[in-house]
Amino acid sequence: xxxxKRKAQLDGVAETTLWTLHHRALAAKDPGSALLDPKxxxxxxxxxxxxxxxxxxxxxxxxxxxxxxARCYDREVxxxxxxxxxxxxxxxxxxxxxxxxxxDNGRVHWLGVDLPExxxxxxxxxxxxxxxxxxxCSATDTRWMDEVDASRGVLILAQGMLMYLPxxxxxxxxxxxxARFPGAELVFDTPPAWMAAxxxxxxxxxxxxxxxxxxxxxxxxxxxxKLRAVHPNVAxxxxxxxxRGRGFLCGWLLPLANLLPAVRTRRPLWVTRVxxxxxxxxxxxxx
Length: 287
What we know:
Radius of gyration: 18 Å
Number of helices: 11
Shape: globular
CATH class: Alpha Beta
GO molecular function, one term: methyltransferase activity
EC number: 2.1.1.-
Enzyme class: transferase
Pfam families: LCM (PF04072)
Order of helices and strands: EHHEHHEHEHEEHEHHEHHE
Strand content: 15-25%
Protein name: Class I SAM-dependent methyltransferase
Strand order of the largest sheet: 5-4-3-6-7-9-8
């Protein structure tokens, strides 16, 4: 980067990309963190935005939570690249995520998809490269699917995005991916339904006073099972276990909660992997 700070003016759902960047960079700066992400530090230092005044200083475990989520997605990408080293990764709602630099094997092709105002900021901070480009397009606009080369395998990521869409829109997106990309996988995260409901009622506030946009869709075991019926090409829906983090919350409390059935459904992060099988002939979508 040229050392000149770029002003960021985002609001609503678009602003969440700055919240995520802030906490991921805080984790990357922490020598006790398990996340190595020098690119995130480089990016946040190039943005003119009142991060600490708006989002706080990373207390309450949010930075380490972002580190756990990032490492979980990185593990899924590396798993995909072991079998498809020349494959295509599609990152829906990519924001200012710097995952490409954390997992790049020198051969992967990467397509980021984001709202035009976010894509414009990203292109100023992280310009397109030969194997990584950003498409200014809503994830719910199926035009992005025409830009994907599926010949060498496809992994679709939706990191920190689907919770801001209504349930029926999410199901249509999964349906479209299943029909268009047989053999591919989709990995996404969601909050539990109880947390999403609190944001809808305006009852979720972070320590610095920031209130996230309403989350319109949250996960339950029942909802996770229902995803299997979204389209006949959905072959499997699996919960993804997050890696162990650092500190009391992410290193001990959350891993312990995952072992307790009564508590597991209330954990703050659900990561789900949906596998698409071969194309099947069908007359409609099973609900």
